[in-house]
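Below is how a single chain appears once it has passed through the pipeline. First comes the sequence as given, then the structure the pipeline wrote out for it. We keep one example in the README because the format questions we get most often are answered faster by looking than by reading.
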Amino acid sequence: MRTATVPEDMSSEQKTILGVISVRQLIYLIIGGGALYGYIPVVFNMMDSFVTGIIACLFSVIPTAAIVGLLGFRYMHDYHMFYDKYLIVRIGYKHQIGVWRKGKDQSSNIRMEDYT
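Resulting structure:
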């Protein structure tokens, strides 16, 4: 059988928005931008002067930008997935753990007479 080497990673997500970002990353940017649009004017109006308002806004942008950057653009090379997918898998891992026994389980021997 003939084999061919594919020069691209076929399992990664498609960069559909101008060939730079994916739809998932665009959704993270829109949500983060909407959050910034909502709370930056409030932070700016809380300050007394223009300069302190700008500085407070810059410091309040950092956590939102870090969360959007981490969830949307951080790729975990060891696990071959982005960080948001990695967190979903790690959170769901607790529900996948069960008690596994080798052999016959005595609790599963339920007779039909028990239900009537």
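Strands lie at 75-76, 81-82.

See the next section for the split statistics.
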